[in-house]
Structure formats: structure tokens, C-alpha cells
């Protein structure tokens, strides 16, 4: 298992948190997602054999948020 912390801008509320979590949880290999609204950080635990950081970033960006 790998763990990555992504810096996401544009998240301001519980709906944002849910949108990001739902998008990431649809990716095969994602095991756990923790969103920290105050800091704009998203921790993702995933299987690097099934998912890539690019896929994770793309899923978040497709929800309308920016990943630094």
C-alpha cells in the first residue's frame, strides 16, 4: 500500500469533501480517503499496482477542484 497527500484547492464545505471522497473511492485500488478541509489536504491510501497518483489527481480535478 502507498499513501499520498495531495494539496487540493477549492474545497470549502462538507459537499466538497463528499464529492472528492466519492470520486476517489470509484478508483480501483483506493483503500482509504481522508479529507482535511481546513488545510486543503487529501490523504489517499491506495494500491500502486491498481492506481496511479495521476489517476487520483484527475479524479479530483474532474470534480472541479485544483490539485497542486
From TrEMBL:
Keyword Chaperone: yes
Gene Ontology MF, one: copper ion binding
Organism: Bacillus aquiflavi
Protein location: Cytoplasm
Record keywords: Chaperone, Copper, Cytoplasm, Metal-binding
Protein origin, superkingdom: Bacteria
Gene Ontology CC: one annotated term: cytoplasm
Gene3D superfamilies documented for this protein: 3.30.70.100
Name of a matching Pfam family: HMA
Record-linked InterPro entries: CopZ, Heavy-metal-associated_CS, HMA_Cu_ion-bd, HMA_dom, HMA_dom_sf
Keyword Repressor annotated: no
Domain HMA as annotated: residue spans: 2-68
Annotated protein name in UniProt: Copper chaperone CopZ
Amino acid at each position: 500500500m502507498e499513501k499520498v497527500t495531495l494539496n487540493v484547492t477549492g474545497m470549502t464545505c462538507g459537499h466538497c469533501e463528499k464529492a472528492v471522497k466519492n470520486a476517489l473511492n470509484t478508483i480501483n485500488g483506493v483503500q482509504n480517503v481522508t479529507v482535511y478541509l481546513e488545510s486543503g489536504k487529501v490523504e489517499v491510501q491506495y494500491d500502486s499496482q491498481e492506481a496511479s497518483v495521476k489517476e487520483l489527481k484527475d479524479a479530483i480535478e474532474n470534480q472541479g477542484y485544483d490539485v497542486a
